[in-house]
Design goal:
With 194 residues, this protein is mainly β. The protein has a single domain, classed as Lipocalin (Beta Barrel). Strands 1, 2, 3, 4, 5, 6, 7, 8, 9, 10, 11 and 12 form a twelve-stranded antiparallel β-sheet that branches. Strand 7 and strand 8 form a beta hairpin. The longest helix has 14 residues. The relative contact order is 0.20. It holds the Pfam family YceI. Keywords: Signal. This is Lipid/polyisoprenoid-binding YceI-like domain-containing protein.
Amino acid sequence: MKRKMKILIGICLLSLPLMTSAQQKISASESKVMVKGTSTLHDWRCKVEQLSGELQAEKSGTTLKSIKAMQMQMVVKSMKSLKEDGKYYDSGMDKNVYKSLNADKYPQIVFNLKKVNSISTTGDVNAIAQVTIAGVAKDIVVTGNAKVLGNGAVKITGKKEMKMTDFSITPPKAMLGAIKTGDDISIEFDVVYK
């Protein structure tokens, strides 16, 4: 009888979803980060073309149980200005961005997770992260949604609104100040860790 009980308990335990924890890296080809803002001429957006980072998360099947660590680095000089039709502007627009972000001195924008406040059963995440832009580090609240994909990858999507001046950045100007960008920006992220 004891042997049958042990076998039954063993079968029950094996049928439970296994909890796994592994370090995963950003899949740059499957990830997208966009920075969007406004100006006196038209709205603008920049795509970050070079990003890297790591994630350590605890998963049970297709459910994300916890995020233990998460980092993302974005190369400032890989940011490219996009038109509405998806084509690139000339490099003059990008140079204004690089100058405003002091890209020669601070070549990366860095995101480091500090604390996860909550993860819902549907994957909604509320967290505190330290974001460093142009050498200024700030702790900010970030919300998003995290999903475990069928191949075990974790996809994190969301949007964060902030002000350039919060990071001591003077909003860029063009054409001798005739065109001015607004202080408010949003960062939209759709990042896959594998």
